[in-house]
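Repro case for the chain-ordering regression, as requested:
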Amino acid sequence: MQTETVHITPYRTYAWVLIALLSFTFLTITVTWIDLSAITVFVALTIASVKAYIVLTYFMHLKFESSLFRVFVIMVLAIYVLVIAFTLSDYLFR
Amino acid sequence: MTEEKTHHPEPSYLVDTGKYKGLMAWLTSTDHKRIGMMYMYAMMVFFVVGVLLGELMRLELFRPGQQFYGPQTYNGLFTIHGIIMIFTVVIPGLAAVFGNFSMPIMIGAKDVAFPRLNLFSFYLYILGAAIALSSQFMGNGPPDTGWTFYAPYSIQTHTNVVAAVFGAFVLGFSSILTGLNFIVTMHRMRAPGMTFFKMPLFPWSLYATAWIQVLATPIVGITLLMIVAERWLRIGFFDPSLGGDPVLYQHLFWIYSHPAVYIMILPAMGVITEIIPTFAQRKVFGYKAIAISSLAIALVGYFVWAHHMYTSGMSPTARWIFSLLTFLVAVPSAIKVFNWVTTMYKGSIDVKPPFLFALGFIFLFMIGGMTGLSLGALATNIHVHDTAYVVAHFHYIVFGGVGFAFFAAIHYWYPKMYGRMYNFKRANWSFAFLFAGFNLLYFPQFIIGIMGMPRRYFDYLPQFTFGMQLSFFGGILLLIGIVLMLTNLFSKKGAKAPDNPWGGKTYEWTIPSPPPVENFEVMPEMGENEQPYDYK
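-- result from build under test --
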């Protein structure tokens, strides 16, 4: 088995991540007051995706782990996209 | 056969060496072998209960019309039969029992990566099973939805659906945690020198299974919670009267429950891949093809779910896409079958009970697989959807496949588990009864299914009587086979087992029978030129 270096994230980084997540949460609530009609869901999901990216990168240490973990996450996302696409092959063509 | 050691300095895992003795020592043990055995005992109890419930259904169906109980009882029986057999027996099945017992040894590890999490998974399994079974005795009577809990009926019925659904939800967590544990174990704890492509093929099948457990199970968890939310909070996810879409439920349910079939069958295939080379004394044919086909089945099997829904009102586009994908998943399954058969070719075959059960598996799995193709084709599916043909098909896969592989596995690893042998003659007889009984029970269901007998019906037209009665007698033979097998294995102690009774080459056959607590006295290393199935 390979030996690994352990990365210790400074508190300051976590503090910035916390501030970023709170800001995006505030933004999520704020945009609900604005009528974005057709793109409402798109905007909400985009903000949620950015938040998920930050959590994965810093809180879940993906930024500091070996590329194997990144491959796993990409694989999971690819499966997720395919599941949605195949489900839509029903809903969009009924 | 290899030489038998008579003295082993380390105490076996069956000897209580810790703080507690007796039952408490087992219930608090984090030893992967003991946890595997506890799963096995629990599963056997559930299996026998499930079989008896099945026999009760066959008894009622012996003649047309009502014989012993009414239609509501029948609906409750097939529901709990399905819940027990699917969620507490075949889904955890071989992975929980033999994955726990054998996999860490086969990869040269002392235990799984997270032993305490492993024990926690077992307790979640027991808790989930208890909650699911409590649905029979609480509230407004046993659920009558079938194990699939199809909406909108599962939203509307007054029976105790919530408990059963919540039980399945908890069982799902057990499955996810076991999968996670196995993935980490196989990534981190393989013996030095054992690369992924030198790992035995049973662990390979568990690796593919574990990914499905981790990625697919959360979807059914959420879906089941959505049913609870809809029943209690009246949120309209699935019920059209609340603005929901019942087909969405079917999508979400089968996105998990079809991959779940591969959670069941992949470890079964893995066990067969261990048994065939051992009893043919021949290097497994197409090692890499078998390993990769496990991953291919896991991946493609993830995207075939809607073949359960051809008649549910899906778009024609979705129907042909899912039909195509269904045919694709048959390819890696067939690769395995060809490899097993080719491994046996010119081998020195030793027909011992585990090998007989493995042959039984291949035969029954092939019938199950080939009839699956006729169900996967859009045109033929319309005719046999929701008929007894489907009942026969999935029993050939789930019982003929997973069940027989389980029996093969227990006869294979029994000497390692208990340090004792069993009576081969009785084991052969039990195989004969099980095999004959199984075919007599389920093959007529193909015929009456094609003739038009619907599944889940309490009553039937007179032309189906002969087929139903054949099935009843098949059920009796099957029951005799099960009793013979269990009494042979568990009623009395056999002769002391050697460390390697079958001449196997994987690591579990290099250690004492039964294994010591930490498996290896000297941790194994795999040489550069060593292979997992190094038969001459």
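Ordering looks correct now. Chain A has two domains: 1-60, 66-94.
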